Description:
Layout (H helix, E strand, L loop, with lengths): L2 H13 L3 H17 L6 H9 L13 H9 L1 E2 L7 E2 L2 H11 L4 E4 L6 H12 L3 E5 L3 H15 L4 E3 L10 E5 L1 H4 L11 E5 L13 H12 L5 E5 L4 E2 L9 E4 L6 E5 L2 H4 L3 H14 L3 E5 L3 H14 L6 H13 L5 H6 L3 E4 L5 H12 L6 E4 L1 H4 L6 E6 L13 H8 L10 E6 L10 E2 L13 H4 L5 H18 L3 H8 L7 H13 L19 H9 L9 H11 L7 H8 L6 H30 L6 H8 L5 H8 L4 H9 L12 H11 L4 H4 L4 H12 L12
Parallel strand pairs: 3-8, 3-10, 4-6, 4-7, 5-6, 7-8, 9-17, 11-16, 12-14, 12-15, 13-14, 15-16
Antiparallel strand pairs: 1-2
Helix pairs in contact: 1-2, 1-3, 5-6, 19-21, 21-25, 22-23, 23-25, 25-26
Amino acid sequence: MDVFHKCFEINELITNGDETGARNEIIKLLDYCQNKELPLTPLINNLIRQVGLYPYLQIETSAWQDRFIYEAFKVNVGEKKQVTLHREQSAILKKLINGKNLAVSAPTSFGKSFIIDAFIAIKKPKNVVIIVPTIALTDETRRRLHKKFSGKYKVITTTEIILDEYNIFIFPQERAIHYVDKLDEIDMLIVDEFYKASSAFDKERSPALINAIIKLGSKAKQKYFLAPNISTLKDNFFTKGMDFVSVDFNTVFLEHHKLYENINGDELLKSEALLKILDNTNGKTLIYAGTFPNISNISNLIIDQQPVKNKKLLADFHAWLSKNYDSNWQLTKLIKRGTGLHNGRLHRSLSQIQIRLFEEPDGIKNLVSTSSIIEGVNTSAENVVLWSNKSGRGRAKINDFSYRNIIGRGGRMFRHFVGKIYILEKPPENEDIQLNLTFPDELIGSIDLDEFKSELSKEQISKIIAYREEMDEFLGDGGFEKLQLEGRLESSNSFLIRDIAKEIYSNRQSWRGLGYLNSNHPDDWEGYLYKVIKLSPGGWGAEYNKIVAFVKIISKNWMCSIPELLEELKDYDIGIEQFFELERNVTFKLASLLNDVNIIQEKILKEGIDISPFIKKVSNAFLPPLVYQLEEYGLPRMLSRVINNSNIIILDDKEKELHDILANFVELSKDNNKLDCLFDSFDKYIFKYFIDGILTDEDNHVIT
């Protein structure tokens, strides 16, 4: 490449008003200079400044005008050193600092985290609520903000935490509802990936997000909503008073390889293409599988065709998985070949370990994933492979919005200027995406008619009135209103709440034995588990008898290892993949359903039955609450068991609060000797990663 000639071309693009084209060419030039280890000339720096990519300026070789810009756009983001923002980041931050409510659409590589961090560092709001789409993104965000702000703020990601004067809340929408009544005022409400409030993008979870936006938004002084790839935002109540800003400003360049043109739907050719990519590319690779069956197919292909990697870290992880999970599991076999699996079913700590290993030079090179990692988790992936153009459920093709979100995971600021995108199935056609947010029918029981009457149609108003009348029939006059005011219901599906109330009202006698669920004998649970599960017929991941058997067996979760549990589950044809799926469904869906059944039966039966103790056990997968919470922080249950049994830190203490226990772990990190005899080498690796996530930048102790 002739650098001067390339600069001439870029200048021509700028002169002709094609800033996007100029910025793309600048990024490719930066990639070339990085690979060739060439310093940036004053001319290159000048062009960088003109296209707004200020963080990329090399001040040592810049003219004074460019050095001035680099310094002028520095802000405090909670780190020891200030960080230079690019032009568009700075523009959005300025609006937020001035009190604007913003709904922003920007590319995946935009660098939205710096804006949030800078706002907190500069404005020092008392209560910040950040709603994220996944548990995986919860932990990533927690780790980042804890490092920077835990000296002033209590960073909260779980329920039942005592609040401080200054708090940062980070959680998925379902968990956010638990804090509605605990917060009188929210200084800033941030909703990441807010497009998921539309049923067009997430039919199952959109009502919960809309519900969170309504209830938390009413208490928020300021709101900041984020999403990628939205062209226009249709007028709606939920973003009323917010400025919509659509930014087309990329910081990396995506290099598309349209391999599907030669593959032409041939599965053999597609497999050969993937293997060739994995053999011939440098850097880390994300493989979008699309569906769970595709994950299995890709895994088998890699196991059969890829050689075992001679790397100690991978060998240690393989041995750890064999010991603590299943030696015949696909992931266990894949790890030896430098490949990991990422999906929403896995234990949170297991997902986090893999992300950590993906960042290691001698760790995992490839990650096979459903949409779980595509939806927000940042990695150092240089390459993205689109194996399938199908959605997660495999019934329909992904749209242009999802496609752009997937490929946007390629490249990373300062690490990979160019992300390489390998497309093995034909992508969707380009389209402008309009986001349309409406009141879902599922929320008719949650909507305050007095507040939203002007925003609702006559039909919606009639449905709400009819719904309330029906609920009052079951709960008594004014009973439903009282229930809503209490804010204890977890489901955002009003129809499910109605069905529960109708069933208990119509069959009072048969529900009077619900207290059997508090029994210490799992066989006593069986009848009522069936009754509860049948209230929500679909989406359990198995037949009812399997779910009931699973609940009874995982009641020994704290006493038995996962291999021991899997041995018992063999009788019900439940393997490790289904183990993860069922545990997730039990801890979230079943626990939520049980909670709502418990509350409604209290109102209807009025007999003092309370199954809260059982619900708490179910919601924590029958683990001690602290152990279950720590798993979200990256400490696997098997390490917690070792620590607890050694009496180093007591983790089955029901009276202790999570943040007190975390403080104990920080103290423990100062003395490595206590764990040396308890942990093998990979246990120590995991524990170090966990500790790193709870230490601050001021902490000097390091686990070796």
